[in-house]
Amino acid sequence: MKKAGSASDPLWFKDAIIYELHVRAFFDSNGDGVGDLPGLTQKLDYLQDLGVTCLWLLPFFPSPLRDDGYDISDYTGVHPMYGTMDDFRTFLDGAHERGLQVMIELVMNHTSDQHPWFQSARQAPADSPERDFYIWSNSDQKFPDARIIFTDTEKSNWTWDPVAQAYYWHRFFSHQPDLNYDNPRVVEEMLKIMNFWLELGVDALRLDAIPYLVEREGTVCENLPETHALIKRLRHEIDEGFGGRMILAEANQWPADVRPYFGDGDECHMAFHFPLMPRIYMALRQEDRLAITDIMAQTPPIPDTCQWGLFLRNHDELTLEMVTSDERDYMYLAYSADSRMRVNLGIRRRLAPLVDNNRRRIELLNALLFSFPGTPILYYGDEVGMGDNIYLGDRNGVRTPMQWSADRNAGFSRANPAKLYSPVIMDPVWGYEAINVEAQQSDPSSLLNWMRNMIALRKLFQVFGRGSLEFLEPANRKVLAYLRRYGDEQVLCVANLSRFAQPVDLDLAELEGTTPVEMLGYVQFPPIERQPYRLTLGPYGFLWLELHPKPESAEEVSEATLPPLPADNWEAVLDGYGRSQLETVLLPEYLPKQRWFGGKARRIRAARIVDWCELPQSAAVLALVEASYLSGDPDTYLLPLAMTFGQDTDRLRQHHSNSILSSVISQQGRGLLHDAALDDSACTALLALIENAAYLSGRSGAVRGVPGTRLSALRGAPDTVLPPARSSAEQSNTSIIYGDRLILKLIRRQQQGPNPESELGKYLTETAGFDGVPPFAGTIEYEWRGGASSTLAVLQGLVANEGDAWTLTTEELERYYENCARVPLPEDLESNAAADLLTLSGQPPSQSALDYVGIALDSMARLGKRTAALHLALAAPSDDPAFSPEPLASGDLLGLLGDLREDAAGVFDVLRDSVARLPDEMLDLAGLALGRRRQILDNFRFTSGRDPQAQRTRIHGDYHLGQVLQVRTDYVIVDFEGEPARGLEERRAKHSPLKDVAGMLRSLSYAAYASLISYTARRPEDFEKLEPWARLWERSVSAEFLRAYRDTASGAGFLPSAETDLRELLYVYWLDKLLYELSYELNNRPEWVRIPLMGILSLPVQVGGREWTSTPFRNQR
Amino acid sequence: MDFDAIPQPAVEHLAQVQGAELLIGVLGANGTSSAVASMVRQALEGFPHPPRAVLVVDKGAAEPRLENEQPLAVLFCRLSDATSSAASPQGFFSAYHTIFGIGRGIGARACTVIASQLQTVTPLWITQLVRPALDMEFDLVTPRYARHKWEGLINRSVLSPLSRALYGKRIQNPMGPDLGLSARMMQPLIEDQAKARGASRGNPLASVLATAVRCNFQICEAQVGARLQPPLDWMNLSSLLAQILGPVFLDVEQNAAVWQRVRGSHAVPGFGPAETAPEEGGPVDAGRLIESFHLGAKNLQDVWSLVLPPTVLLEIRKLSRLPLEQFRMLDEVWVSIVYDFALAHRVRTINRDHLLRSFTPLYLGWIASYAQEMGSAGPFEVEARLERLAQAYEAGKPYLVSRWRWPDRFNP
After folding, report:
1. Helix (H, G, I), strand (E, B), or coil: what is residue B383?
2. How many helices (H) and strands (E) does chain B have?
3. Which of B342, B316, B358 is nearest to B396 (CA)?
4. Under an 8 A CB cutoff, do B136 and A460 touch?
5. Between chains, do A630 and B387 touch, taking CB under 8 Å as contact?
6. DSSP per-residue codes, A250-264
7. Exposure check for chain A: N or C terminus, fewer CB within 10 A?
8. Where does CATH 3.90.550.10 sit in chain B?
């Protein structure tokens, strides 16, 4: 019965570790002095434990044993010395049970002269079918171009047979006549033999000496086309009848000549790479990688389904056929000082003696073997560093009994030592008492344990067996470095071929950002950057470095990695079975990726869809989602959702992948669930909701559109089409622009109560008549069950503008630094820096300011004026308690200081917890800032203790350059929502308008330094040189802003009447804003943390009773 | 059809069932089989479009019998060589394979195995475990049980956090025992079992998550409510631990190439509403557990010295000197113990059975520590505590990888 092979993967041989052994030499189970199959079976556990995956058995067939079994007299039997066919079956089953594959020899080229085929042939008449099994001639002059391979023993490839009265052809020993593959019967017989072993379940066949199968006059009788045709026939027979098997070509040729033995993947699965082996030894001895890189450069690519077989040593001599004569001479001199070490064209020595038993060299050579592209083949005994016996004839010196223990006969056999097929090695260095398996098994630091670990490690990574190879070319040629890649596996191998430590710089720029992890100890190395990557290796040291991608590219759960949600209708998505998938995975993954999500610093535990309703005349819904965290209160967010099917999904994936929540499947096919702000019909439906004052019932609340009094005028004729477009400036909210008329702001974070954006906009537009804000046009409100409401969206008239003041200011600063970089610092700069801002604002601008800051001074004066006008409008008397000004009492101030101090302490806590995540260059700044915590917190105080004689009013609350649009020569103030991270009540609270003033002053400072950082990004050394210019700009425009503000608001009730009180109040708000910025940047833009940290570090420090550094407001305190 | 493990008459019965989409296997249902059939019918009514289903009820030694109705065909038969699936672990395990084989044989699109004691199983269990596989392209559906803080401690202390660290999936019960599977998930499980030989042929539940991750399959959890936990046999705890951890450690060994590539962890989608945890039993007597730990520390020192590194041994020594009320095992120590035992199992430092049995006092030490810490804790505190433990497993994974790759005993 035909038995299956043991491997399920047809390419198993690419990941294999092959172990070559003689049955005769491995273990003797019956005490006759010769290793046998039952003995080998007993040692299967050892081989499994070693980790090898495929056992290659040298010939074990009946044979006169004149060439170590390669002279076969019966192809389908087992030599009685080694056991029986049943013993072989038992061995095979045992190997397969342990997951081991088995490879045996198919010696096709020749038989023994004792084979019945040859005996019949020599006795049969000439031209008879029997005679035709071999190649005969009346002359020994045929095929004169064919070289003699065994030069030490053979003088000709022809030998006279006195019985046949003819010469017979043999490429090897004269007792090994070559078969005649021009005779179809020979081919048929050999196929039968092959099928016999494959049907038994043998996994692989090594095709011995296949270049020589066919002979033709006028050729060297090697690698002939007829030979390849024959191999193709064998392979076809295997593919047709047997799955998961492999044939390995033994063709001791140059790589380019071996390449045809792979065919187009239709000849041999594997072939030995003979020329590499001597070159590895040559590179090691010469301490120069050239020998290796040179031969690998000559190695042609092979089909994907094929593999090279690599080895350091095998049962034959270290062959030097595939080297130049100079190289051969070098190798003889380097590795065979004693002439008895040489045989034929090679060196008959084992691995350990070749490298003078140097453990580091042995490890290095094995590390190369295991990491080069191919399947490594180990020779039995080399895993313990066995020696050889050069006093034995032929290649028998490397075929001595396996050294199992220090017992008699090396634990190989219980026979009388004289009965052993070969003497065991007994000298003091290599003898079995010094080197044996048992001793090394109990020695944790033994070569055997090292080999076992390396084999196990290699087996974890398919890249070694299947990956591509790319050599690096560091200047130091004593170092061999190469990259192996396979799928997402990337490994960098670096080896020092020298006996001394070596440095090396590797150009790994293309791998920038990846992190090398040393594979043996899983030790993380510094990440790779654009600069050369420097390593130092000890003598004969090597490194295998697994290259891990950047952490953010680690596997993420996303719409692409999860099944689609069933989505025949919105109920199915949001109330149906898929809702759990949204709530447990998709939303918790989606929310933190959104710019508008404010809880990035916290870890989401779960998300819950609180309510939802469909938007009429669209394929969208408005949903409220509650995010709960591992700690702290939950947040609720507005999430308008739409589904898109068909070709539009490609556009969404390409341009808006971050806004996609999930893939969906419905009767329309596959589609995407995404943010509805990307859907035009949804945007239009939102506008209609307000225009129509519509009311939509949700599952637990309701949505209501509320038009403002000026909506009709702002919108224009009702039949005017206002095409929606998304604003690119998305921050904590999302804006939709309708034509050139209206803008709808979706309020993402939902809090119950009036939203300041709609409340202030409506008040300033409809009550105060202030024209410095976008006109209010309506809102969308959500009515919670229980009566409370929250604002989902605010509609305003669209203000045509030149851009926001932040963008315009930073653009101007770019030009400013460009100009200043070329001129020397003005002399009056230091005197300018000595005064504080309030003092400066009472003086005309300095000459330097006028000369260099120029037009920005006028702009900031206009902004100061506009700001004061806003504050005056908000401070107007009102019957509405939400807007009526209130006195600012000293008690209010104490409460304010207490709150601000508490907030400040919290920000320092966040800074402390975030230090580990900060970029390296900011660690020092963060450490210094934390060191000043106590001093900074002490600054929240008022010295006078009296009522400041000022008012609290509604204010902007989050006032900075980004909240101001330039409209021709004036400004319009936008975004009254307040600081998004603060609670609604806090954002609606009345404050001194100086809080807005402080906010704008910080923003001017931000603009100056952010632009400076950006300007000097390519030349960081210029930062220090230009920093005084940044200070000049900041202080000049800030003073001008303050001057204009104070001039316009002069006499207003909200400003403290005493200069000292005004100064102190402004400073406290300034400091509070600074710490808020720090908190915001830590949560959202760690790379910007530098700016508020620099602000903190510019605060005064008491050192030795003297105050160091200056701030805008402290000099006169 | 592929019904190797079930009697021929049962095979003939199954051949009569046409077009089945769903296979439901119920293990250990002897004596309650008609109630099971009724429950499954109820479960099918909960589907928007009830699938054609086959229910296989493990019916002890009775002759196979088929009730072939729409939409449910019920086959009562013996599922394994063991007289009852619940009688022996091997019988239990082979019953799973038989069900997978039947699933493949009848061409089912999905399959669920119910192995918990049936007193607490409801129709919802079946619906929840099956629908993600049948309707939503998930391949493996693991159960999430409502449980109080003293239930499932082997799972809480080892199986769940270990599988999370190794395979990157945050799953409450990676080893079921109740499961839902897609047809494509059954395929590699059947193939793996066919390939497994000798000792490695074992508990299919130990490798089900690794198989899903290896094949890049979709995994989710289903809330199924409270599960009646079999009472813990404290006298045979060592055998139980060996029975559970042996296959788990074997799975760790066989899938090393898979888990060593996984970094970090992610939640998996969860289906169904969370249910309230059942009433707790009485307080845990930590004193007796600590006594057992002390006894182990005294008698097993030599064995542990072969397995654990000196820093951990030192921590254990310190722990054994602490007064009862201060007895706390640090997460890092516990994680290192589990990882070192997994490694020792792989490298066969000592006989594997002896190794696993020597784990028992350490495990009791962990329970004692947990019991003292969580004595008065509410569900959220327990959840937070176990999250910290799971994070410690993840943080310790590089240690496991490094020791796995270079299992030198000369380490800190």
Report:
1. helix
2. 17, 11
3. B342
4. no
5. yes
6. ---S-HHHHGGGGTT
7. N
8. 8-271
Mean pLDDT of chain A: 91
List of residues 6+ apart from A1050 with CB closer than 8 A: none
Q: What percent of chain A has pLDDT over 70?
A: 96
Shortest CB distance from B198 goes to which of A97, A460, A562?
A: A97
Phi, psi of B180 (to 5 degrees): -120, 140
Residue B200 has pLDDT above 80, yes or no: no
Angle at A769 between CA A764 and CA A775, to 5 degrees: 60
Residue B278 half-sphere exposure, CB side, CA atoms within 13 Å?
15
Q: What was the pLDDT predicted at B341?
A: 97
Instruction: Give the closest-approach CA distance of B319 to chain A in angstroms.
Output: 29
Residue A344 has pLDDT above 80, yes or no: no
d(CA A450, CA A440): 10
Could you tell me if B49 lies within 8 Å of chain A, comparing CB atoms? no
Name the one residue in this structure whose structure tokens are 């939503």.
B136
Residue of A nearest to B388 (CA): A630
Q: Look up residue B320 and give its amino acid.
A: S
Q: Residue A318: what residue type?
A: L
CATH code of B8-271, in short, is 3.90.550.10
Per the CB < 8 A criterion, the answer to whether B403 and B342 are in contact is no
Q: State how far residue B15 is from chain A, nearest Cα, in angstroms.
A: 29
Determine the Cα angle at A968 with ends A965 and A973, to 5°.
25
Query: What is the edge-to-edge ordering of all strands in the sheet holding A742-746?
Result: A695-697, A702-707, A776-783, A789-797, A742-746, A734-738, A724-726
Would you state the pLDDT for residue B6?
66
Instruction: Identify the residue among A488, A522, A548, A630 best suited for mutation to test binding to B, counting B beta carbons within 10 A and taking the highest.
Output: A522
Q: What are residue B403's DSSP bridge partners?
A: none
What is the rounded CA–CA span in Å between residue A74 and residue A78?
8
- Crossing angle of helices B183-195 and B204-214, in 10° steps, is 120
Mean per-residue pLDDT for A390-409? 93
Q: Full-prediction pTM beyond 0.80?
A: no
Which residues fall within 8 angstroms of residue A1010, CB to CB, at 6 or more apart? A810, A1088, A1091
The DSSP letter of residue A134 is: B
The Cα–Cα gap between A1083 and A1092 comes to 13
Nearest to A584 among B263, B270, B405 (CB): B270
> Of the ranges A201-205, A470-474, A570-574, A743-747, which one carries the lowest mean pLDDT score?
A570-574
CA distance B350 to B339: 15
Instruction: Write the pLDDT tens digit of every residue in A466-476.
Output: 999 999 999 99
Is the ipTM of this structure higher than 0.90? no
Helix axes B160-167, B237-254, angle to 10 degrees: 10
CB of A733 closer than 8 Å to CB of A747: yes
Instruction: Give CA separation, A908 vs A858, A1066, A1091, A1097, A1100, in Å.
Output: 37, 21, 15, 14, 18
Strand-pairing partners, residue A105, are A206
DSSP secondary structure letters along A983-1050: -HHHHHS-B-THHHHHHHHHHHHHHHHHHHHHHTSS-TTHHHHHHHHHHHHHHHHHHHHHHHHHHHHT
pLDDT mean over B98-124: 90
Confidence check: pLDDT of B84 > 60: no
Residue positions counted in chain B? 412
Each residue's pLDDT tens digit, A829-842: 766 566 678 888 88
Predicted local confidence at residue A1115, as pLDDT: 35
Answer yes or no: is pLDDT of B68 > 80.
Answer: no
Segment A987-1024, tens digit of pLDDT: 899 999 999 999 999 999 999 989 998 898 877 778 88
Count the neighbouring beta carbons within 10 Å of the beta carbon of residue B125. Answer: 26
C-beta atoms of B269 and A580 within 8 A: yes
Which residue in this structure is represented by tokens 């950057």?
A529
